[in-house]
Amino acid sequence: MKKSLREIAELIGGEVVGNGSIEIEGVAGIEEAGKGEITFISDKKHLFLLETTQASAVIVSCEIKKARVPLIRVENPYFGFSQVTRILVPYQKPTEGIHPSAIISEGVDLGKGVSIGARSVIEEKAKIGDNTIIYPLVYLGKGSRIGRDCIIYPQVMIREGVEIGDRVIIHSGTVVGSDGFGYIPHEGKQYKVPQIGKVVIENDVEIGANVTIDRATLGKTWIKKGVKIDNLVQIAHNVVIGEDSIIVAQVGISGSTEIGKGVTLAGQAGLAGHIRIGDKAIVGAQAGVTKSVPPNTIVSGYPARPHTQAKRIEASILRLPELHKLVRELKKRLEELEKKR
Amino acid sequence: MKKSLREIAELIGGEVVGNGSIEIEGVAGIEEAGKGEITFISDKKHLFLLETTQASAVIVSCEIKKARVPLIRVENPYFGFSQVTRILVPYQKPTEGIHPSAIISEGVDLGKGVSIGARSVIEEKAKIGDNTIIYPLVYLGKGSRIGRDCIIYPQVMIREGVEIGDRVIIHSGTVVGSDGFGYIPHEGKQYKVPQIGKVVIENDVEIGANVTIDRATLGKTWIKKGVKIDNLVQIAHNVVIGEDSIIVAQVGISGSTEIGKGVTLAGQAGLAGHIRIGDKAIVGAQAGVTKSVPPNTIVSGYPARPHTQAKRIEASILRLPELHKLVRELKKRLEELEKKR
Amino acid sequence: MKKSLREIAELIGGEVVGNGSIEIEGVAGIEEAGKGEITFISDKKHLFLLETTQASAVIVSCEIKKARVPLIRVENPYFGFSQVTRILVPYQKPTEGIHPSAIISEGVDLGKGVSIGARSVIEEKAKIGDNTIIYPLVYLGKGSRIGRDCIIYPQVMIREGVEIGDRVIIHSGTVVGSDGFGYIPHEGKQYKVPQIGKVVIENDVEIGANVTIDRATLGKTWIKKGVKIDNLVQIAHNVVIGEDSIIVAQVGISGSTEIGKGVTLAGQAGLAGHIRIGDKAIVGAQAGVTKSVPPNTIVSGYPARPHTQAKRIEASILRLPELHKLVRELKKRLEELEKKR
Predict the structure, then answer these.
(1) How would you write B73-134 as a 3-class SS string?
(2) How far apart, in whole angstroms, are the C-alpha atoms of residue B231 and residue A160?
(3) Is C62 on the interface with A (CB under 8 A)?
(4) Where are the domains of chain B?
(5) Which parts of chain C sit beneath pLDDT 70?
(6) Active-site positions of A?
(7) Is C274 a catalytic residue?
(8) Predicted local confidence at residue A100, as pLDDT
């Protein structure tokens, strides 16, 4: 798609500096961008690149008044660039309609403008909302519901009894609704606890690739509005994740743990079961969280502790070899004194 | 399904207190259960909820003699409840038979009552035992064997040369029999070591979603009877896991390591290759195990150490900043003494 | 396949000691091998097994001159054995050609001798090179390219805009080209950053099972020549991995991080974003790497530090309880001295 710089500026609510009639047809990073492409600078320390960039235009923050290249000035250049990207490189919807090789079982309820890809299997009584896109080789279990304007990438597996809201994106290889991991030891054997609960995923959630979200034992595993989940994350049965929380790759959340709103769990963090992470808390990468965390708290380390304490302990540990040495020396001097007495 | 409280009590070997003729048709947690539903209390500290629950009946331990609601008294209430769940909410078998879109190659040997779902691909000479259920979009490799009464969920991948016992459950996205990770450096390049061994999975094993189990280089990767494996676990080539062991989510077990019987590996633990974990040992969450662990031992930490030692060291670390301070103070006082001399 | 010991020795460039005319038809480990099988010893401490092995022949290093069984002497016995394995147990190619149930969309460009398995879906304008094998239930996105002599196992998902070189192997459940994890906070909401970059995988790369490789935001996520990636690894958007590096299972690499040539990342290690790991560096298992690592350096621990420092700190920590005790004792003795004064 081609647009003039002026048109782009209008669409993203920015102000043009320089020639607004030049045509832009692509986006790229500041060092790769060439003729016909627009780029951005969001960090002041990259401003010097304005002198050398080959881009036809640059999106910058309002503090920048002028440059040798045409500019669009906006409040948040990265956000503006991101909007431009979506305009110039629109998401390529697959062909609308039901591929003849898709299997649509009895009683399936399809909205308007739904796409279902080749070889996908939609089980009985499943429901898919308007304009939702199901890529090839997807499985949607009996009676499960997906809202409108969702994108379900190839090879996603959604089992029976799963409820998914609107504008949800699920990436490939992700499994939603597998059995929770629950056994009862009885007379020396492990018996499986039936997992008859469901999974509820609310509006505007995005889930990465090869994620696992187990169904609840009873009740529901619950991913609330606006949650973003990265790849290879484990979400056990009956976990609740509050609105707009961010779960980075390879995090593991054990059964029945409750995550508040606006929480960030950094990569590879592990959370014990039956604990609560307060609103807006931040859990550091690889942290091992064994107890509940109050709201607005940063924890890190293994086991996880308040971040400032973790840093202080960290520093003491670094000085440990030196401490050992000092104590040995003090001991010698003390013995010296004791002898002289 | 509906049953009277008396019928239920008989089926699970419990004793009714109160009106045994009331009808029960569902199960729920103590705080969610309503009319027509049965629930349970296994922890004494929740007994006060007997006063307020809306459930029609509660399964309790034999110590409880009477309550305002009808009871079933059993030895292990959670186990009893779990049995009731399976009775009232039976597993919904998919339609028996081979879906016309499944691909059954030459020489495949199918038992009685086998279900094979849409779009599944069963390669030559594979064998599937009586009453086993293969969901849609499953791949079963050449000559592989699955026993009877197994459940293989959608999108499971089982490569050639895999042997699976009876009553095995494998959840979606799991890969069994991928090549082990083995290379030989030779004249500055990495050469792939052919992985020609197999995978053997014994009876009553359950494997979670998106697990990876590599085939052996030579011989077999071996998951013994009754082992339970959670989601996103990595099991490398030639690993052996002893009977009834429990492997929690995101654990990684390196090549040729041997896990004893009744072992528990908690979430995100990592085990080095070529070590042995003794029977009934417990490895803590996120532990990094670099050496063999004797039987009946609890280890934790990074690197993993006997749990009591790890706890003692943990406590010393917490008091480190204070120790630094104390040593500084002692030093000053010592200098004081030295000067006075 | 059957071969005489002499033929085998010639094929791997070794020297026979003993009867070269015996026939060999299989391979096995030293303790399992029986009649008709060849095995190997690469570690001197296993040489005593030459006395008891039931194998018909053993591959050994040149230092060994003679034994009670026929030998093949080579420089690197494990490498030699690995070559013999490939000769006696050749990779079983699936039937050549396009399975009638595969879906080949318009404008797909297929090389000579390509195999495409049942139910695979190849989208428009994708390109597959000569002799490449695509197993069943694979998804290959629009316009993506795979080189020659590749093996793509069942249920691999390759999205649009992915470029794969020659002799690449990708194991089941792996997802290549899913969206990078990027959001911009704007007026209290998270907005998705469009991920319009690609993934480039060069020649001779092998990728394990259930791996996730995200596409770049802009530009490319780039896996260079000869890289070997184990199972369940997370590779975020815009990561670059240098030639011949080894990435062990469950490692996570955050966005825009650059890994040099010949690097080893051991199991479950986690790397922060926007850092650089120098050529031939080694990152220990479970290490948490928060800063760039210079070339030829070994780091370990959490947070990762140079290995010798990590070891020294580790040792000081082990002696901590004893240090606490010693300091308490010194304090008492000091007080004694102070009193006497």
Answers:
(1) EECCHHHHHHHHHHHHCCCCCCCCEECCCCEECCCCEECCCCEECCCCEECCCCEECCCCEE
(2) 18
(3) no
(4) 3-88, 97-308, 316-340
(5) 341
(6) 237
(7) no
(8) 95
- C282, C260 Cβ separation under 8 angstroms: no
Enumerate neighbours of B (3 or more CB pairs within 8 A): A, C
d(CA C142, CA C127): 9
Could you read off the pLDDT of B140-178 as tens digits, one per residue?
999 999 999 999 999 999 999 999 999 999 999 999 999
A residues 222..281 contacting C (CB < 8 A): 226, 228, 230-232, 244, 246, 248-250, 267-268
Q: Measured between alpha carbons, how far is B209 from B213 in angstroms, rounded to an integer?
A: 12
**CATH 3.40.1390.10 holds for C3-88:** yes
- Encode pLDDT of B208-231 as tens digits: 999 999 999 999 999 999 999 999
Q: How many CB atoms lie within 10 A of CB C147?
A: 21
CA angle, residues C208, C151, B116, in degrees to nearest 5? 80
Predicted TM-score of the model (pTM): 0.96
CA quadruple C72, C73, C78, C82: dihedral sign: negative
Q: What is the pLDDT of residue B341?
A: 65
CB B110 within 8 A of CB B48: no
Counting as low any pLDDT under 50, the low residues of chain A are: none
How would you label C105-127 residue by residue, b for 16+ Cβ within 10 Å and e otherwise? eeebebeeebbbbbbbbbbebbb
Of residues B175, B193, B286, nearest to C209 (C-beta): B175
Candidates B203, B209, B201; CA nearest to B230 is B209
Query: Each residue of B237-281: pLDDT tens digit?
Result: 999 999 999 999 999 999 999 999 999 999 999 999 999 999 999
CATH class of A97-249: mainly beta
ipTM: 0.95
Does the domain made of B97-308 have the CATH classification 3.30.70.20?
no
